[in-house]
Structure formats: structure tokens, C-alpha cells
Predict the 3D structure of the following.
Amino acid sequence: MRAVVIHAPKDLRIEEREAGAPGPGEVLVRLAAGGVCGSDLHYYNHGGFGAVRLKEPMILGHEVSGHVEALGEGVEGLAPGDLVAISPSRPCGRCRYCAEGLRNHCLNMRFYGSAMPFPHIQGAFREMLVADASQCVKAEGLAPGVAAMAEPLSVCLHAARRAGELLGRKVLVTGCGPIGALCILAARRAGAAEIVVTDLSAAALAHGLRAGADRAVNVAEEPEALAPYAADKGYFDVLFECTGAPQALAAGIAALRPRGVIVQVGLGGDMNVPLQALTAKELDLRGAFRFHEEFPVAVRLMQAGLIDPAPLITHTMPLDEAEEAFLAASDRSRAMKTQIAFA
Ligand code: NAD
Ligand code: ZN
């Protein structure tokens, strides 16, 4: 079977790998769809991010869905042919944070397609994948590409939980890539009364409006457009920072009202924080990192039609054209979410 392997920046290869066989409690899945994420792009364009560097070839990918091909011993509740969304979150279940229920902070996390540990954790862009049955959530009724959106949606559901109460709140989302757009969908579902989104790209902002934002602000064309929201100590209750850019964080902080909440989702290396404003306005700065128990919730919300990420999937390319998919995904003016079709 074939897999999408990164060797070095811009050196992406399609290589043969062993499919493997499902052991007890495991499932062999024939992959259907795989979304290209910002972190995959970091490995492709730069060979890593921050201090994380590729030290050996690694299969990319962690936003995937597929059809069950075979069941290992003792697996119940799944049958060959079932469409499943596969969670890339693989905590150990035994460390102190797993015991506390903070599974996204597992000390032995084996998140697919990550060069953080060495040997690297191989990813899921492969025609056949052996996964734990507990990672597989039945996704009947969804298109395979939509099922694969459960992963980035889970990131945003987790971010919404970190925000706390959203009912009736005024929300600012900085950055309208797939994560910002899914934060709009998650915040609206949680009862946000007003949502404003910013980006540098008109194409991205059009997706933000379609996802349900009340107003889209192009900060490249109108750099001062958020300034009125800073009057009288600010306007928004919650900021979802989804760029990782210090300028976006600073503009968002200025527009937050006293006791507002910042949920920092974007990963931007070391960002400068206007700390004085945090103190003076008594703002809460909260990180949001990955997810765990939100994954089946994401699948259920999509199945019930309560959150529909389908319009965000702009490009689907066959496995043979994986590199083209990475190039398309790197260009925000062309693509929102780009996926690889494995079958
Ligand atoms: P993306 O790069 O597709 O989107 C970022 C968007 O921000 C782009 O559309 C860009 O035009 C816009 N932007 C850049 N600078 C801006 C500025 N100053 N003001 C307004 N908009 C600006 O990335 P994505 O896939 O949507 O992910 C967003 C961020 O979330 C990334 O930093 C990613 O690494 C991070 N992320 C975090 C987690 C987590 O668990 N915390 C999970 C997934 C992704
Ligand atoms: Zn653990």
C-alpha cells in the first residue's frame, strides 16, 4: 500500500509501506479522505516548526476517515464496510494527566504525524491504517470528506469549551483559515450572539461569512477597522485567536472588554503579548491545545446537521497528486480545506 512520506522540506514522496494486520482491539481501515492541515504544511514547506524538526522520514496526516476493512480480536460495535472518522489523539491512558481526565496533555501522547518525539509518530496518510477501535467513530450518513473534518472541528469544540460561557456573548475570531471558520461554527452553535471575523484574505473571509459570521473585516485593506471596538475599554467578550500572528492578538486584545477571555488557538512560535492590557482590563488568557473527548461529539454534531463544515472543503485530489494538494493547501487565495481522496 502507498503512503505520503515527507523526507525534507519540499521532498514529499509516495512510497510503499506494509499495510499491517489488526491485533486485539484494533481495526484495519481502508482510508477514504485525508485533510491537509497547517502542521502538515509546516513539515512540507519548512521541515518542521519552532524547535520541532524532521529527523527521519515521516508519514504525514492526521485528519482522516475511512472504511473498516477487517476487525481484530474482541472488537465490538464496528463491522466491515462501516465509514469511520479516526481520531489521531492516542493518549496512553496511564499517566498522571490521563488519570486526571486531561488526555490531550498525556505525557506519552502518540498523535499521528508528529515529529515532536523521536522516533517520530508516523501519520495516517496511507491507504491502509491499523488503528485502535477506540479511535474509530462511526460516521454513517456523512460523506468521507466531511467525516475527516471531525479532527479540526474537535480542535475548535475544545477551544469553545476553553472559552467557557458563549451564550449571548460577542465573539471576535482573528484569522479565517479552516480553524477560524470552524471556531465560528462552534461558537455559533454554543449560542454566541454576535461574531466578527478578521483575515488578510477576501477569499477566506467569504468563507467566514458563509460559516455564519455577522461581519468580516479585511485587516489588510482596512487596518484600522477594529479600532472603533476598542472604545470605552472594548466590546467583545471572547477572542478566538486563530492566526498565531502577534498583530492579530494585539488588535484582538484592544477590542476585548474588561474581564474578556482570550482563547489562543493559533501557534505562532513566541508571540509578544501586550501584558499591560491584560492586567488593566483583567483579561483571561487561555491556551487551547488539541482535544480528546470532543472527537465523537464533533461527529455527532455533523451527523445531526447542527454543524456543517462541507462548504469549507474546496479541493479534493487523488493520492497520486498529493504534492499538488500540498501546493494548493499552501495558497489561501485558492483553497480553504484541501483533502486527499485515497479511494
Ligand atoms: P491557516 O494558516 O490556514 O489560517 C490562518 C489565517 O490567518 C489565514 O487565513 C491568514 O490569512 C490569517 N492571518 C494571518 N495573519 C493575520 C492577521 N494579522 N490578522 C488577521 N488574519 C491573519 O491556519 P489554520 O489551519 O486555520 O490554523 C490556524 C492556527 O491554529 C495555526 O496557527 C495553526 O497552527 C493553529 N492550530 C492550533 C491547534 C491547537 O490545537 N491549538 C490545532 C490546529 C491548528
Ligand atoms: Zn497518558
Q: What stands out?
A: Residues 91-92, 94-95, 97-98, 106-108 surround zinc ion (ligand 2) (CB under 6 Å). The radius of gyration is 20 Å. The first strand starts at residue 2 and ends at 8.
